[in-house]
Q: What sequence folds into this?
């Protein structure tokens, strides 16, 4: 089993890189730094991969540059993973926290998925919440779930090669219409290929996001639809109903 670890980090976030490096070194995790796509000052209209109309329809608002930057940073990690000979990719954002037992826990969990021949695309190891899920296995300190309703947040995720290939091919034929964590929920709730670990292995530190800073401070976004609240509820309940069907009508 070969696991590649990628750490997303903005060029000017040197303090975060130092903190993350210290934690990963203590956990025995070697990593490759991936320079984050800095979308904080871009003109969103210039991004050809982005569909504003689809974003307003699905999210109830347009996206900000920081959200697009986060999305493209995760795509860059997937491309590096697929160009490698690794079996799995652990993608971390620099505002995560990592315990000393991270590598041992991840290896144990991945070994279990292999032994049980579980088909999955993406595993969320950083989310503080898990809803509409099925327990797969209890480990000493964590529980592995089938995440029918894939958790939000991308401080820590693990890709299978099959999942990374599927995601990459999707990005080549579809425009960006939502933030990356919203997309993972949309996509994985639809195909039921998500897993999650709880309590989280790499929970967020609680610090404001650097890459997504303007959005973290002002979440209403661009070009907000007058029916934003209704559109949001439609999105949430649409995903929840799909997840419930996967859980109870499998």
A:
């Amino acid at each position: 089993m070969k696991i590649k670890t990628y750490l997303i980090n903005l060029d000017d976030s040197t303090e975060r890189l130092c903190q993350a490096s210290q934690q990963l070194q203590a956990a025995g995790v070697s990593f490759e730094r991936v320079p984050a796509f800095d979308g904080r000052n871009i003109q969103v209209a210039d991004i050809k991969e982005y569909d504003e109309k689809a974003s307003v329809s699905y999210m109830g608002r347009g996206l900000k540059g920081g959200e697009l930057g986060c999305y493209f940073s995760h795509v860059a990690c997937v491309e590096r993973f697929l160009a490698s000979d690794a079996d799995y990719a652990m993608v971390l954002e620099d505002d995560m926290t990592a315990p000393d037992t991270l590598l041992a826990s991840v290896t144990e969990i991945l070994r279990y998925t292999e032994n049980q021949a579980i088909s999955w695309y993406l595993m969320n190891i950083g989310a503080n919440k898990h809803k509409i899920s099925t327990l797969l296995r209890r480990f000493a300190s964590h529980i592995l779930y089938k995440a029918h309703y894939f958790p939000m947040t991308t401080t820590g995720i693990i890709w299978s090669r099959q999942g990374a290939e599927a995601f990459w091919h999707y990005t080549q034929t579809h425009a960006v219409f939502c933030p990356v964590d919203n997309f993972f929920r949309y996509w994985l709730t639809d195909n039921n290929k998500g897993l999650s670990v709880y309590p989280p292995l790499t929970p967020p530190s609680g610090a404001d996001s650097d890459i997504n800073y303007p959005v973290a401070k002002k979440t209403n976004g661009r070009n907000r639809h007058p029916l934003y609240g209704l559109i949001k509820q439609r999105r949430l309940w649409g995903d929840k109903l799909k997840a419930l069907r996967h859980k109870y009508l499998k």
